[in-house]
Design a protein that fits this description.
Blueprint (H helix, E strand, L loop, with lengths): L6 H7 L6 E4 L3 E5 L9 E5 L11 H22 L3 E5 L15 E6 L18 H11 L2
Antiparallel strand pairs: 1-2, 2-3, 3-5, 4-5
The chain binds guanosine-5'-monophosphate.
Length: 138
């Protein structure tokens, strides 16, 4: 575990309150304090890791295991039919809190939710690139 405490450590320890929606041995989920839409939930591992690529398989599995259930709960509670999952890594990638977290962000007809700028390019060297990534998997 690294030594860089974040606000989410304080939420995990109970020093700072949150609106908790779910907790198990590996995971805590709570309402985002600055929601992009009603029902915006954060899902965090109890393990302290800043970025997804640093997370243990066990914590990652814990998050993955509960995500569909949490998404269904957000849909049921808010009535949303659409939503985004967002997970930012690094300040240039819009990460503000350096403790891994997954956002569940309902998208409503009034436009509230995640705004996206998506500028697709061209896939040039797909075969070479796919091989490079495949070879890099530990
Ligand atoms: P990021 O940009 O790092 O992916 O998102 C961090 C999120 O954490 C933001 O949506 C922000 O509103 C939320 N957040 C930051 N501090 C707190 C807090 O003290 N309590 C809660 N519930 N959410 C927080």
């Amino acid at each position: 575990m690294n030594d860089d405490r974040t606000i989410f450590d304080s939420i995990l320890s109970g020093e700072i309150p949150c609106h908790r929606v779910y907790e198990d041995d590996h995971v805590l989920a709570f309402l985002d304090i600055g929601p992009l839409s009603r029902g915006h939930v954060l899902v965090i591992p109890k393990e302290r890791a800043a970025y997804m690529h640093e997370l243990s398989d066990e914590s990652a599995a814990g998050i993955g295991r509960v995500l569909p259930r949490l998404c269904r709960a957000v849909m049921k509670a808010t009535g949303c039919e659409h939503y985004n999952l967002l997970q930012n890594n690094g300040a240039p990638a819009h990460q503000a809190v350096f403790h891994v977290h997954m956002h569940i962000i309902p998208k409503f007809n009034d436009g509230s939710g995640l705004g996206l700028k998506w500028s697709p390019g061209q896939l040039g060297d797909g075969e070479t690139l796919a091989s490079a990534i495949a070879d890099a998997i530990e």
